[in-house]
Amino acid sequence: MKRNRMRWAAATLALAACSAFAAETTPPKAPTQAQVTPKVGMFTVTSLSVFNPIPKQLQLMDFWFPMPFEDDHQKIYQRFISAPYNIETAELPESLGVVNYMKGGPRGGLPLQVRVTFHVERFELVRTDYSKAVDKPATEQEKQIHERWTRPETLVVVDKEMKAIASKIVSGKKKTVERARAIYDHLVAGVQRVTPYELQGAGYGNAKFTVMQMKGNDMDMAPAFVGLCRALGIPARTVIGYKIPPGLAQGGLADYNSWAEFYLDGVGWVPTDPSEARKSPSKRAYYFGGLDERRVAISIGRDIMLVPPQADRPLNFWVKPYWEGDQKPMPDPYVETSFIQIDEIPGKNPPAGTTSSSYEATEPSRPAASRR
Q1: Where are the alpha helices (DSSP H) in 160-251?
Q2: What's the CATH code, domain 127-292?
Q3: Domain 40-122+303-361, CATH number (from 3.30.365.10, 3.40.190.10, 2.60.40.2250, 3.30.70.1560)
Q4: Considering the entire predicted model, what is its pTM?
Q5: 265-300, pLDDT tens digit by residue?
């Protein structure tokens, strides 16, 4: 019995020695990061545009209607347009938006309406790992992004004052992500929310105006962030679209809104939503790098030229229908947009040979004038 106990003890010591040796010679495993499944939102969105009155003397009418774009975080299904004239569809290269274009001839003053319906599948985006970030663009594509998205725009100026303000905000910060976060925190904590009725000049997305006044509405916060980033040479851009109200299964979308993205070399576009962070202080960290799934992105950037190009100046934002009569800008139509939350996308996998886009004429076809 004693001999057996001695053999057991020796075997135990040998096993312990082997385990210790293995621990010293085996490389430690890389820490694993918890994988979080992003939330998904699915909605049917309908937008009705009513053009009334239409002047009797008009000989040529051009109409442009926005349609959401697709990317890794937003998929669009079963686009449907009900319109009195044929619809032509084109893409806007820089804004990533989709244009539905319609032209028509004299109507004798008769009003018209256009209904746009689509299903959207939106994925939550949470970007928190910046370990792959680098100090400068490493690829030709990144160099092009820097060149394009650091340029000023009509209401996003990059001048000495903006550069001085931005430099003061990020004082002591060296890394791009740290500088962007300092700008974000500065705006979330400091901008006072006002309506355009309370402050003339608010609501247009004028970056410098918002930064100088430290006042604005939800359409001003994202451009202010973009302007300050560009002042430091950080590529940034605004995204325009609709935010789906939380807790509602259906309802109206009376107001469009904006959020922002900045480009981090080696990582990609990083979303921010300073206006939502200001409304919900407990989610300030989330909305730097995170976007919820209850929104629909329509277009990216400012100073939008449509396809075919409008006769008037570039559009400040591209999120609602625009039209011209005899190549002159006309008053905004009445627009009613609504949503319904759904559990699945109808026709997500249509049979072979079908199309996900269509239109129908709701009036007898009228002669379409050629656009000059």
Answers
A1: 160-169, 176-190, 207-213, 218-231
A2: 3.10.620.30
A3: 2.60.40.2250
A4: 0.85
A5: 999 999 999 999 999 999 999 999 999 999 999 999
